[in-house]
Amino acid sequence: MHSDIRVCANWETTHDRPVYTLGDRCPVCDGPAANSAPAPFDPTDRYGEYRRRARPAGPDEQDE
Ligand SMILES: [Zn+2]
């Protein structure tokens, strides 16, 4: 199940670090809060295919 955690949409300019909230607005600056889902760390590992393609042919066990 996806989490409903949101992050202040303007945290990069308004805060020193991301401000997370479960509501629609930032609790600190009262600005809009955006869904934090599009994160660089996708649990579905969308880069897995690219990583396997970039690696020369070999056993998948060599993951280190
Ligand atoms: Zn904020």
UniProtKB/TrEMBL annotation:
<dbReference type="InterPro" id="IPR036756">
    <property type="entry name" value="H/ACA_rnp_Nop10_sf"/>
</dbReference>
<dbReference type="GO" id="GO:1990904">
    <property type="term" value="C:ribonucleoprotein complex"/>
</dbReference>
<dbReference type="GO" id="GO:0006364">
    <property type="term" value="P:rRNA processing"/>
</dbReference>
<keyword id="KW-0687">Ribonucleoprotein</keyword>
<feature type="region of interest" description="Disordered">
    <location>
        <begin position="31"/>
        <end position="64"/>
    </location>
</feature>
<comment type="similarity">
    <text>Belongs to the NOP10 family.</text>
</comment>
<protein>
    <recommendedName>
        <fullName>Ribosome biogenesis protein Nop10</fullName>
    </recommendedName>
</protein>
<comment type="function">
    <text>Involved in ribosome biogenesis; more specifically in 18S rRNA pseudouridylation and in cleavage of pre-rRNA.</text>
</comment>
<dbReference type="GO" id="GO:0001522">
    <property type="term" value="P:pseudouridine synthesis"/>
</dbReference>
<keyword id="KW-0690">Ribosome biogenesis</keyword>
<dbReference type="InterPro" id="IPR007264">
    <property type="entry name" value="H/ACA_rnp_Nop10"/>
</dbReference>
<keyword id="KW-0698">rRNA processing</keyword>
<dbReference type="InterPro" id="IPR023532">
    <property type="entry name" value="Nop10_arc-typ"/>
</dbReference>
<dbReference type="Pfam" id="PF04135">
    <property type="entry name" value="Nop10p"/>
</dbReference>
<dbReference type="GO" id="GO:0030515">
    <property type="term" value="F:snoRNA binding"/>
</dbReference>
